[in-house]
Structure formats: structure tokens, C-alpha cells
Write a structure and sequence with these properties.
Blueprint (H helix, E strand, L loop, with lengths): L3 E3 L7 E3 L33 H29 L12 E4 L5 E4 L2 H29 L1
Antiparallel strand pairs: 1-2, 3-4
Helix pairs in contact: 1-2
């Protein structure tokens, strides 16, 4: 900007700056919407290594094998029939040392079967929960 010298009527000079041109309002740019990453969408997970995948696959195989054995045992217990008279019905348990226990009382056998079935069904539920949670 240049300075204009103004001479008033009394003879003194005075520096006067020219009036600035009025500022024109510039149109505002439309607001940009934030991207999805700003909304808390998680970044893609890191791809597991081959070794991690193999370990997970091996664990899955063990879990499925265990579930199959327990499911077969539950099916066998479901087919187990105890007559009210208890004729020809007996249970024989053998421990790790080779000692055996046998009983032919129908009420006791019924309780043993019911308890074993309940425990096995609870174990199946645990395995299914592990499977759904881990895989």
C-alpha cells in the first residue's frame, strides 16, 4: 500500500492511508463428513501365522474328539433300561488298580445313570461353549 500525503488547509502535512476495500465474504466450503474410521470401527485384525493356525486346528480336533466320546456316552446312557424289578440289571465299576464294585439294586443303578448323564450333558455344554468362544 502506498501512503498518500494529504495537505490540510492549515499547511501541515498528514499521512493518510487509503481506505481498504471492503472484504467480501468468501463462500464457506461444505463441511466434510468424517470417515468411518473416526467412528470407532476397529481396524482389521492381524492375520495369524501358519503356526498359530495349525495350533488352533489341532486344538479344534482334540475338542471335537472329546465331544464325540462324551456324546456317544450320553447316547448309550439314554438307551439304558432298568426294569422295575431289577432283574438282570447290574452295574460294575473298575478302578485304576483293578478293584471292582458291582451292584444290582435298580434304584441305585437309576441314580448312578441319572447322575452320570447329568454330568456328561454339563460337560457337553462346556465343550460347546469353549468351541463357540474360541473358534
Amino acid at each position: 500500500m502506498s501512503i498518500i500525503k494529504d495537505t490540510p488547509t492549515n499547511g501541515a502535512t498528514k499521512d493518510v492511508k487509503p481506505a481498504a476495500a471492503p472484504k467480501q465474504e468468501q463462500p464457506k466450503a461444505p463441511e466434510q463428513k468424517p470417515e468411518l474410521s473416526n467412528f470407532g470401527v476397529p481396524a482389521p485384525a492381524k492375520t495369524p501365522s501358519i503356526e498359530d493356525r495349525m495350533n488352533k486346528f489341532h486344538a479344534l480336533g482334540k475338542l471335537l474328539e472329546r465331544r464325540e466320546k462324551i456324546s456317544d456316552a450320553v447316547d448309550s446312557l439314554s438307551d439304558f433300561y432298568i426294569s422295575p424289578s431289577g432283574d438282570s440289571c447290574n452295574v460294575r465299576l473298575t478302578d485304576s488298580k483293578g478293584k471292582t464294585f458291582a451292584i444290582s439294586h435298580p434304584i441305585v443303578i437309576g441314580e448312578i445313570v441319572a447322575m452320570a448323564k447329568a454330568k456328561l450333558l454339563a460337560e457337553l455344554a462346556t465343550i460347546d461353549n469353549d468351541f463357540n468362544f474360541n473358534f
